[in-house]
Specification:
Layout lengths: L1 E8 L2 E8 L5 E2 L5 E4 L5 E2 L48 E4 L10 E6 L5 E5 L3 E5 L5 E6 L6 E8 L2 E6 L4 E4 L4 E4 L7 E8 L2 E6 L4 E4 L4 E3 L9 E7 L2 E6 L4 E5 L2 E4 L8 E6 L4 E6 L3 E6 L2 E5 L7 E8 L2 E6 L4 E4 L4 E3 L8 E6 L5 E5 L3 E6 L3 E7 L6 E6 L5 E6 L4 E5 L2 E5 L7 E8 L2 E6 L4 E4 L4 E3 L8 E6 L5 E5 L4 E4 L4 E3 L8 E7 L2 E6 L4 E4 L4 E3 L5 E2 L5 E2 L5 E8 L2 E6 L4 E4 L4 E3 L8 E8 L2 E6 L4 E4 L4 E4 L7 E6 L5 E5 L4 E5 L1
Antiparallel strand pairs: 1-2, 3-4, 4-5, 6-63, 7-8, 8-9, 9-10, 11-12, 12-13, 13-14, 15-16, 16-17, 17-18, 19-20, 20-21, 21-22, 23-24, 24-25, 25-26, 27-28, 28-29, 29-30, 31-32, 32-33, 33-34, 35-36, 36-37, 37-38, 39-40, 40-41, 41-42, 43-44, 44-45, 45-46, 47-48, 48-49, 49-50, 51-52, 53-54, 54-55, ...
Amino acid sequence: MRLVRLALIGGVLVTAFGCGGSEATRRSDGLDARDSGDGEVGEVGETDDPDTGEDVEPPDDTSADGGDVHDTGEDTADGGPDVPEVQGPGEFIADEADLPDEYVFKSVWAGEPGRIVAVGNDGVVATQAPDGAWQVLVRAAGVELLNAVHGADRDNLFAAGIHGAILHGSVSAFEPAASGTSDTLWAVHAVSPSRAYAVGRGGTIIQWDGARWGKSASADAGAVWNAIAGKDGVVALVGNGGRAVLARGSGIETVASGVGVNLHGVHTIDGETFFAVGDQGTLLHGQGTAWAPSDLGLVVSLRDVHGQAGDDVYAVGYGGAVAHWGGTSWALAESPTTASLLGVWVEDDGDVTLVGQDGQVFEGDRVAGFVATETLLPGGELVDLWGTGDGAFLVAVGTSGKIFVREDGRWSETPTPTSQALEAVWGTSRDDVWAVGRSGTALHWDGETWTRVDTGVTALIASVWGDAGSNYLAVGSGGTLLSWNGASWQSVASATTGNLRALASHDGVVWAAGAMGTILRFNGLGWGATKVQGIPNADGGEDPITDELLAIWMAADDDGWAVGENGRILRWDGQIWAIVETEWTTALRGIYGLASDDVWAVGTAGHILHWDGEAWEEVPTQTVATLYAIHGDGQEHVVVVGDLGTVLRLKR
């Protein structure tokens, strides 16, 4: 028998739908409760996880068996021209979901105004059409609980749940799909119709490629990578056998280089146009994944390529080879030497520095010519250069762990903690530079000294690159792929063995959050941990966060939110996830925003918090049901779902 329960709370009449006589009440400890039918009182929505037999929502307000999935609203990262000016947080009002049974809705996807898809217990997928009519699309056979739903659009939706359950469909129909895993999935997120991710128990990460689900892809682990470069979120890797790939936040694209020789250098100025060089005089140039070779009659190996403008790029190699790209084609430039040239750096004003055999340094350009200025390493080699655009600071690295720095036009050797041969150098400022080399060597320059940092690998690290946010990637032999998270180097092809509860994306970059305050970012090559602020301790240090994070939402590349157990709120500034102190201690299970200053977090006991750009404040909801998820269309259609079939809509 279906019951309609009316409750007068704060002078507002609230309607909830249920069956069997369960009744929502406010407990003295502030948690939700319902009659379990056996004389015991449990929290609203409490259920046994079929994987473990344990309550997934214990009375101490730990996490539910439901990851929260959130769209970023890509057109709303900066508010967007179509987003109305925020007049206040608004209020969330109950929607009378005319459904035949009581449901625990664990996740929601909100499309055009009025369009809702909600999922929950008993494998139920329910939808509301814009005219207000509700319909149960499917009760998936054998699926006890669906934890998440998300889609790229109304015709490409996914639902995920326990025992690896995956459904694929639209606003009008869903069908089972093979996930390839039996682990509980807590979150699913679609970046596009051909790219989606699901995460869950034990660090499970699977990926949809437009046809099937499988293990999340990463760059070829068997490759020998020789160089890496990037710009604006696009990273290029090149290696032996002519292998080349472009990595974006949503995945990896193979470059048809058209050559089978080993490639040793790669460069991009804008993330769209690429230059690469390699053995047998190979010179490549192209847009996106379409690269084409040029034949200058060179037979020597070319080792490095660099430039600051699209019509002023230099490549260097053995036998003193110097080639110049003038905007439409490559041409040979007059060389100052017949010795091997291994590194090139071009400053903003077009001045060029070349280094190579015996640590010889040449300066000039193709018009004025090059002159020898130093011989820094007789009997050795300088192999790579990095400097500031104005040329005030330049670093050269080479054999035997040797590093030389040019400041104010003068070169000097700096002490280093290694004798291993160095292969590459890159930095983001004159006090943040990395040099890498053989036997897994990585050295960091902080403006004063070089410090050796453990990488966890012993393979040769052939190249290192970083962006303006000091997010570094390093590559090498044996498929070595490393990511610097601000505190340590980690393999980007791996993730975590801890539970992952939530997913989000922005501009194709995918984020995952879960146990022990873990937050991962997928950069196209693999998953790497990001830096999370610890809790200050009495010794003046920091203890790691132990709270499980249940939801994440990104407003921009350098602005994001993660929430979880015990009212935990973290904010991303592009460098670190910082702790935001608030007065709330109940679990926050969902988060979504229309703009960076218009964000809601939802959770236990009907709590909804709003961020207005300056502070978090509680928004009255007139419900005590646990709220699991919030989602919207990027405009004003924002929906919250939870226990007892609760559906709340934003009203402004």
